[in-house]
């Protein structure tokens, strides 16, 4: 990396690895970079989470796998994809809502429909009912706690 106030300083240099030159770029996609707006970061996080979800959605709706195993898949695969780069961002109410919708959609897929005791009809689980079988903190709370944890690390770094 070339640091200079002269904007053309890095243009004359090239980096070669195995006889291949690396392209010099002005901008690149970085999840937690300061140049990204919060909505753009959240949108990318959810887009990655949705892509991950659609790649294994048959597993989550399968009756062969137990709910316990499906929850492990959710915790190990989906959540880290959505959490990536979230330590430096504090989501707004709108982004929090979008994150909760994403989480509830996945949890409904994992736990499946519920048979109503009175009518005997199948229905989707309500948001409150998703908290009973899934006692872990919701995705927004975890993202906020990771941000606080990151702030603690930064504060302890000193200069």
Please provide a brief summary of the model.
The chain contains six helices and four strands. The chain has helices at 38-55, 57-60, 67-83, 93-111, 127-131, 139-157; strands at 16-17, 20-21, 114-115, 122-123. A hairpin with a 2-residue loop joins strand 1 (16-17) and strand 2 (20-21).
Please characterize this protein's 3D structure:
With 159 residues, this protein is mainly alpha-helical. It has one domain. 52% of the residues lie in helices and 5% in strands. The mean pLDDT is 76.
Structural domain count? 1
Helix coverage percent? 40-55%
Number of strands: 4
Provide the spatial order of strands within the biggest beta sheet. 1-2
SSE pattern, N- to C-terminal:
EEHHHHEEHH
The low-pLDDT segments are: none
Mean pLDDT: 76
What structural class results from the helix and strand content? mainly alpha
What best-fitting shape do the alpha-carbon axes yield? Answer: extended
State the main characteristics.
single chain, 159 residues, mainly alpha, two-stranded antiparallel ribbon, extended
Q: What order do the helices and strands come in, and which of them pair?
A:
Layout: E1 16-17, E2 20-21, H1 38-55, H2 57-60, H3 67-83, H4 93-111, E3 114-115, E4 122-123, H5 127-131, H6 139-157
Antiparallel strand pairs: 1-2, 3-4
Helix pairs in contact: 1-3, 1-4, 3-4
